[in-house]
Specification:
alpha+beta, seven-stranded mixed β-sheet, two-stranded antiparallel sheet, 4 helices
């Protein structure tokens, strides 16, 4: 489990703190394993893995089909449909859109919104993925954090495979702090 090593109280409005935290291009300065993050527009980020990431592929059951048009057009279209989520652990009591959380609560984030408060890391992660897949998707990308249990991504991947056998799940060891699991669905 992640723990808070230090905390800082800042005397600024919540919107100011939030706006600073969402300066994603600054993440590589303090996030191990991330070389760069590019914010493509208000809803899309691109964070290529640092170096050569460890990659595992679970269940590839779809036939490979030739892309229609050029590869660039196909990739641009796919990137436009990518959604993001995460699982983190509350460091302090706070009011979220899902309700009031307490220190140690597991928080599920869907498209930047704290959508789930729970007590089971894998359970919250599965619920985040279910909500993200509810509007469609063929590829689930899981990026495990530095304190993530090795079975977390595998248990989430097993549920994805059971409920969406036509899809693929890819796991990267990201090593990021504060987020045991980052999730992408496209």
């Amino acid at each position: 489990m992640a723990s808070v090593e230090s905390s800082i109280d800042v005397n600024v409005p919540v919107t100011t703190a939030y706006n600073q935290w969402t300066q994603f291009e600054e993440f590589p300065r303090f996030m191990k394993g991330v070389d760069r993050i590019e914010q493509r527009d208000d809803k899309r980020l691109h964070a290529p893995p640092a170096g050569v990431p460890r990659r595992r592929r679970f269940w590839c059951r779809r036939p490979v089909r030739p892309a229609l048009g050029t590869v660039g057009v196909g990739m641009t279209t796919a990137a436009g449909h990518t959604r993001h989520g995460a699982v983190t652990i509350a460091a302090r009591e706070a009011v979220t859109s899902a309700g009031v959380c307490q220190p140690g609560d597991i928080l599920g984030v869907v498209e930047g919104d704290f959508a789930i408060i729970g007590s089971d890391l894998a359970g919250v992660a599965v619920e985040v993925v279910r909500r993200m897949l509810a509007v469609g998707g063929e590829l689930v990308t899981l990026v495990t954090g530095q304190d993530a249990d090795g079975s977390l991504a595998e248990s989430v991947g097993a549920v994805v495979h059971a409920e969406h056998p036509e899809g693929d799940t890819v796991v990267y060891a990201g090593g990021q702090a504060r987020y045991p699991l980052l999730i992408g669905v496209e």
